């Protein structure tokens, strides 16, 4: 999965500046139009205001805090989401826009090269663009549909215990080769420990994905965040649902031309092995483990909810423009972007503020 998605020469994401949209392989909230970024901008603006430096008392000799406000987007692609966010912030609060510093984190060199043109007139706020998170962050870190594309381990329960699913190659009668799966011993005891922490025992034959890299990413992000917020938006579930019999086949799949890999295929050659490097590969995020990793690293959980309720807390109640209403409907649609996407909001050194994005209802369906 790592090679197929991120290899610098043949990786799916590494070879293109943009993969989503009607002409791409899958559809995201950003593809709906600028509305999603504008709504996120409202939440980020509220967070920026909560983080505004306070002037020191006249008798105090302590200098004012650094007035900077970092906006970091991880998995930024060509910068479309950040462009929409920045334009909204500039329109609603020029003072926050003036002190904002944009950092885009993206592994694809092709996408990074496209960022200045996509940002357009707001490219003036771009301070850094690299494959790694900044060393220190004071502000807001966003990860929108990033963690579901991190390489995962797949495990399966057999009579002898938990086994890991590996990728292998098999030679056909024609002499051609094809990728297949093969089971073996666990590559790391961390996989069994992960499920044990959740008190999860898979049913016989049950498969599941374990995203150790997402946990590492969250712990790293928590260390780098000095003060501020993290917003994670992604496909996923709480662990009790993700590792339930309802998902006994696992959630690992691939997309091309808006179609999920499917059809009757042998277990040893699942659809996600097709056309490596030319398809998106994804697995749902375990938000329970992600939240536990965050709180264990010193963050405070401020909200976990469906995107539907997050958006309803941010949208103006008097939306009358038809185009905006149609875009809003797409973002809220049950069974679509609204309920399949979950929002996890975390804070550090910010207390427990009542955030606008959590004002409508904090609920996960």
What is this structure's SSE topology?
Layout (H helix, E strand, L loop, with lengths): L1 H5 L28 H16 L18 E6 L5 H13 L1 H6 E6 L3 H11 L6 E5 L6 E8 L8 E6 L2 E11 L5 E8 L5 H8 L9 E4 L1 H13 E13 L1 H4 L10 E4 L2 E2 L19 E3 L2 E2 H10 L3 E7 H8 L7 H11 L4 H4 E8 L17
Helix pairs in contact: 2-3, 7-9
Distance between the termini: 29 Å
Number of helices: 12
Radius of gyration: 21 Å
The structural domain count equals 1
**Overall CATH class:** Alpha Beta
Task: Outline the structure in words.
The structure is a single chain. The protein is of the alpha/beta class and 365 residues long. The chain has a single domain, classed as 3-Layer(aba) Sandwich (Rossmann fold), CATH 3.40.50. The chain has 12 helices and 15 strands. The strands form 3 sheets. Strands 1, 2, 3, 4, 9, 13, 14 and 15 form an 8-stranded mixed beta sheet that branches. The protein starts with a helix and ends in a 17-residue tail after the last strand.
Descriptive labels:
365 residues; alpha/beta; Rossmann fold; eight-stranded mixed sheet; four-stranded antiparallel sheet; 12 helices; 30% helix; 25% strand
Gist?
The protein has 365 residues and is α/β, with parallel strands linked by helices.
């Amino acid at each position: 999965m790592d090679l197929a998605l991120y290899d610098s020469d043949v990786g799916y994401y590494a070879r293109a500046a943009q993969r989503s949209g009607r002409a791409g392989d899958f559809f995201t909230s950003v593809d709906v139009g600028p509305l999603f970024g504008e709504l996120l901008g409202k939440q980020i603006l509220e967070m920026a205001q909560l983080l505004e430096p306070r002037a020191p008392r006249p008798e105090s000799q302590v200098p004012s805090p650094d007035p900077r406000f970092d906006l970091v987007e991880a998995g930024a692609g060509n910068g479309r989401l950040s462009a929409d966010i920045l334009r909204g912030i500039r329109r609603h609060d020029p003072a926050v826009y003036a002190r904002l510093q944009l950092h885009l984190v993206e592994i694809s060199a092709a996408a990074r090269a496209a960022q200045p043109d996509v940002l357009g007139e707001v490219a003036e706020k771009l301070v850094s663009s690299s494959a790694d998170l900044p060393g220190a962050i004071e502000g807001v870190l966003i990860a929108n549909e990033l963690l579901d594309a991190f390489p995962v381990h797949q495990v399966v329960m057999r009579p002898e215990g938990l086994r890991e699913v590996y990728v292998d190659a098999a030679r056909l009668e024609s002499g051609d080769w094809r990728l297949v799966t093969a089971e073996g011993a666990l590559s790391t005891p961390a996989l069994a420990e992960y499920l044990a922490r959740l008190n999860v025992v898979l049913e016989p034959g049950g498969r599941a994905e374990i995203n150790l890299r997402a946990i590492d990413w969250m712990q790293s992000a928590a260390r780098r965040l000095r003060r501020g917020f993290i917003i994670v938006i992604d496909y996923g579930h709480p662990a009790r649902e993700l590792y339930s019999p309802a998902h006994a086949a696992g959630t690992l799949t691939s997309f091309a031309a808006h179609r999920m890999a499917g059809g009757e295929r042998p277990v040893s050659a699942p659809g996600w092995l097709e056309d490596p490097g030319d398809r998106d590969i994804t697995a749902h995020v375990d938000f329970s483990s992600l939240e536990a990793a965050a709180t264990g690293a010193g963050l405070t959980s401020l909200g976990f909810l469906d995107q539907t309720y997050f958006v309803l807390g941010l949208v103006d109640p008097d939306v009358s423009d038809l185009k905006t209403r149609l875009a809003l409907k797409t973002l809220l649609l049950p069974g679509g972007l609204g309920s399949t996407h979950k929002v996890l909001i975390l804070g550090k050194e910010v207390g427990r503020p009542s955030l606008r994005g959590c004002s409508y209802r904090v609920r996960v369906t």
